[in-house]
Amino acid sequence: MPPPHSVPSSGGSVDILTLLGGQGGDEVHDEAFGFELLNRWQRDLPLDPEPFARIAEAYGRPPRDVLSALRRLQREGAISRVGAVLTPAAFGASTLAALSVPQDRVESVAGYISLMSEVNHNYAREHEYNLWFVLTAGERRQIDAALQRIEDATGAAPLDLPMLEGYHLDLGFDLRGPEARAARSVDLTRARVNLDSRQWRLLAALEQGLPLVPRPFARLGMRADMHETEVIEQLRHWLSTGAIRRIGIVVHHHELGIRANAMCVWDVPDARAAEAGRRIAALPGVNLCYRRARVSERWHYNLYCMIHGREREAVLQTRERAVAEAGIADCPSEVLFSTRRYKQRGARYAER
User: Fold this and answer.
1) Is the alpha carbon torsion for 134, 138, 143, 149 positive or negative?
2) Nearest-CA neighbor of 325 among 289, 288, 280?
3) Which residues 6+ apart lie within 8 Å of 181 measured at CB?
4) Which of 79, 83, 166, 239 has the fewest beta carbons under 10 Å from its own?
5) What is the pLDDT of residues 152-174, one digit of tens each?
6) What is the mean pLDDT of residues 223-235?
7) Siroheme decarboxylase NirL-like HTH domain location, by residue (predicted)?
8) CA-closest candidate to residue 316, choices 299, 287, 337
């Protein structure tokens, strides 16, 4: 039996409306409404004192319908949270790490890593390096200490792969299928912020997601000793600088039938990496694209993208388009499909 927080990440496609629950009569309409909320409001949540009322107005429905649907979808596992997706390292430090673990120890090592507060994502992947996890913390020294604890516990030094450039950082999903969209690049230097004590309290409240109440920003303000309008203006500013990537519904894509995902990596000459990354980032079906540090002979890849799809073949087809569009067929590469999700949550910078 898989350990806690573990969900297989392969399987057949599923009718997404079936996953939203309900049968017959008025509930069929509610399924369609739930799907519309999930698909439309993954970003651009109104920065308004009553954001759910503004959403409801767009459909000619009362605000309670929106709140009721979001609570149900969260309860049923379709939604992780409604809130902000933060830019890696904008509020602190972040890195991608990996371990090569003997197969008979994968479950126990993954369980240990998932319990660490610095870890917000933890996946098994098809590769010699078979455990991949993301660590975030307020300061880089906390990540270094966490990596050392992992090495001490496992006897293996993790790959440490900090991000150098971000070409598309979003991880939103079009549930009707990949569509053309603008890449959401980020200037990591411009996105970096320094916080005062009230802003740290706001970040701590924001990391838990917006409360599903009529005036969620007022509720956040109560925890941060900030007025509702101050909260909204601060969030608007963080969006404008790129410190926050988006504010909206954060879905559990696996639970919604998007069950295949692969991390695709290439060893691209540094002089070509940015242009190749921008070309890949603009392709439908690519959810993340960035350049990371190399680790000498242990790991020489520097260009990464994440591709999600309902089936493996769809992911591989998108990868082939990426190779052709970026002109990197000559570059060494690998495809690492995920096989199990051990942990997935929003980044935490303020909770420690």
Assistant:
1) negative
2) 280
3) 174, 284
4) 239
5) 999 999 999 999 998 987 656 56
6) 96
7) 36-79, 201-245
8) 337
